């Protein structure tokens, strides 16, 4: 009898454990609104798959990560993406990469990848990089200066940045654990939102004068 009770208890524990660890699949785009009629569907969570028998080498290939990007912009930085948009064979594999070129003092301003962690490898130059922990950890800044051959990890969903502190160009490669990690640049999202977020609300949130907020919104919305 005790053996039967033990087996029942073990089975219930195993079932509870499996339910506790179960979760929905991670989203592969920002939003995915449910519809009643499949014929009106445009997206799945990710990309539609071609018949595997029709796959070819070019589905898993991308050329161009050896070429410098154009850093002649206000941030002095350029990214060359290698995600599922460029490499269809990455669909469902949960990986992507990109090359980042930095002009002297160029930067990738504070941003997040909502769907991925990132590991960055410096190929040339010197970068000051870091991320900020969540409110629960008191928004601690974790930062370091990286040189050629150094690597640094940015945890999923945390605000992070990179800044070329050298007087020469810098180059880095990043790998991420999502086929389409997404990117939200904090200042662009907050002050460049369309339609604009109420400036009085932002003024209180950022402890700024409303006129300063409106000025920032004009700059970011107009792309200056």
UniProtKB/TrEMBL annotation:
Record-linked Pfam families: Cupin_1
Residues in Cupin type-1 domain copies: 63-214
Residues reported in the UniProt entry to bind Mn(2+): 111, 113, 118, 160
Keyword annotations: Apoplast, Disulfide bond, Glycoprotein, Manganese, Metal-binding, Secreted, Signal
Signal peptide: 1-22
Residues involved in oxalate binding: 113, 118
Chief location: secreted
PROSITE patterns from the UniProt entry: GERMIN
Molecular function (Gene Ontology), one example: manganese ion binding
Keyword Translocase: no
Cellular component annotations (GO), alphabetically ordered: apoplast
Residues spanning the membrane: none
Disulphide bridges: 32-49
Compartments in which it is found: Secreted, Extracellular space, Apoplast
CDD domains reported in the protein's UniProt record: cupin_OxOx (cd02241)
InterPro entries named in the record: Cupin_1 (IPR006045), Germin (IPR001929), Germin_Mn-BS (IPR019780), RmlC-like_jellyroll (IPR014710), RmlC_Cupin_sf (IPR011051)
Keyword Flavoprotein: no
Function description: May play a role in plant defense. Probably has no oxalate oxidase activity even if the active site is conserved.
Family classification: Belongs to the germin family.
Protein name: Germin-like protein
